[in-house]
Amino acid sequence: MKKILLSIMMVVAGISAASATTTTLNCQDPTSLGYVAPTGTKGDAQFTLIDVAKGIVAGNIKITVTNKDGALNSNSAKFWNGTSNIDFRAYNGGSLTFSTTNGENITKIEFAGNKVVTGMTFDSGVYTPGTKAGSWDGMAATVGITVTATLNINTITVTTVGGAITTVAIPVLTPKGGTYYEPQTVSMSCATEGADIKYTLDGGDPIAYTAPIVVSKTTTIMAQASKKGLTDSGTIETIYTILPLPEVANIAAFNALPKGDIAKITGAVTAIFQDGRYLFMNDASGSLQVYGDLGTAAYTNGDVLSGITGTVGEYGGVKQMVPVVESFGTATKGTSVVAKVVTSAEAKTVEVNSYIIIKNATIARTFPDDPKKAKNFTVTDAAGTIDAYSRFTSSVIPTDATTYDIFAITNAYNGAAQIFPVEFIASSLGVDDIETGSTSIVAVNGAININAEKASEVLVVDAAGKVVAQKAIVAGENTIEVAGGFYIVKVANKVAKVIVK
What's the distance, CA 142 to chain centroid? Predict the structure, then answer.
């Protein structure tokens, strides 16, 4: 089949070169594309948003832009004034659609810029990345692009030809080729309606494509499409590398891996706190932040998971896991993670992503007059001050001068210690004796978890003084379900004040 497959360049060359039109969009000069060039390097003056109703038009080329969720925000497509030049930026979750205003067909799109090698998935044709550049080849009236990572584009050059389409579009393989750690189900499609696709596996005999195929070992797929009355498409050659999934025993071993590696943690890990895309976990070896799409998976303090898998990421110098969502399944209930009581000074030396509580602390905005930095503040107790950032939607920074007991996750940014508050509790309601001896009393969503040193009597009283629960409990784990609110919990001669959400 290799002998009968035509190369992309041969197909493009076979189209009447004389009728080809080349249009270059200079994204470093937004005025040439009908937009005001941003003149500042900070705030709103640093960018000009793309008008999604207008798009970008130059010569016979139009680019239609769609932003993620249709919203206008920091991840909207824009012209951005950076440190060295202005460029066009589009972000993960958005899309770009190229079309012509005169009915011609697109045969080539060339991109140049700082971030164009990856970040684009095309609905037809073949994309070949280069060094700070990339080139799409095909034949289509419209070319759709799904943006999968931030794009920084300086110039776009589009080649079009007139007349009816005479060549079948090059097939598209989904998912894209690359390195995977489990078998992949590969589907093939062609933008030319009614076209037939034939493919080979590792240079074998041609096979007619009728349904998705499973690739369970490293395989090279070559595919070509044909339709009666049209010239056969060019070929697409894609390599799927299937490797065994690397494994590590615990969180410490995962955090020791270099950025970009992928691994499965074979040992059990325990959830500390989750807020949307943020999930914090620990085991006996250390603590870990998982950041990314977890689908519908939701965990509470004490939930235990095994076999979680992800890629080693890094933000602000701190390692984190970018999750493989399928590995985050149903959890079993384990021992709740108790917040460690520390001072602001001690919090700076605690391992990042640890669960702590700083008692009797006051709060001050770091930039009180700058609404764009409203999430930055400081926490001060008798031992000193530590920077804090309101990372989670579940915690709102208090605006009064009350002294608070602050539950938080330790973190750092470029080496500077900081905390991410989870909850603020007025010190007048203080959370005392969270852990006394070997008995722990912890509030979780909708319940109070008690890990009792020995069989005991428990008494739970609400803020109004009403007895909510009074019963015998066994040594070890016990759960008492209660409505959200403030409670005093007495286990034998040990007392704690907790707030249940």
Answer: 29
